[in-house]
Amino acid sequence: MRKTQGSLLLAIAAVLFSPPVGAQQVAAETPQTMLSAQIRTQGFTCDKALGATRDRKRSQPDRVVWVLKCSNATYRVTRAPDMAAKVEPLP
User: Fold this and answer.
1) Confidence (pLDDT) at 28
2) I want to staple 46 with a disulfide (CB 3.0 to 4.6 A). Which of 7, 31, 34, 70 is the partner?
């Protein structure tokens, strides 16, 4: 019995005081990175996402509208669950 308690304490101490192995920092996913990735998969170009703002007037409970500003263009992106985004280039 004593041997298993000692082994258990040793294992806990090793886990608590060992340095993290392979720890990587994951970039936070923001609306602009998520939207720019989505429109790229749909064939639109967004060289660098500069910002995304939600269009509250056009949005509905099941349909969210965003204005995505990229370095090369601005898009209105409408997202609905389980559907491809509707992307409209803005002047």
Assistant:
1) 76
2) 70
Which position has the higher pLDDT, 84 or 4?
84
> How far is CA 22 from each of CA 25, 53, 82, rounded to the nearest angstrom?
10, 35, 35
pLDDT of residue 82: 93
Among the listed residues 88, 63, 85, the one whose alpha carbon sits nearest the alpha carbon of residue 75: 88
Total domains, the chain: 1
Scanning the structure block, which residue is given the tokens 């002047």? Answer: 91
Any domain includes 21:
no
- Does residue 18 form part of some domain? no
- Residue 59 is assigned to a structural domain of this protein: yes
Q: Which helix (H) or strand (E) holds 14?
A: helix 2-17
Q: List the domain range (segments joined by +) for residue 61.
A: 51-90
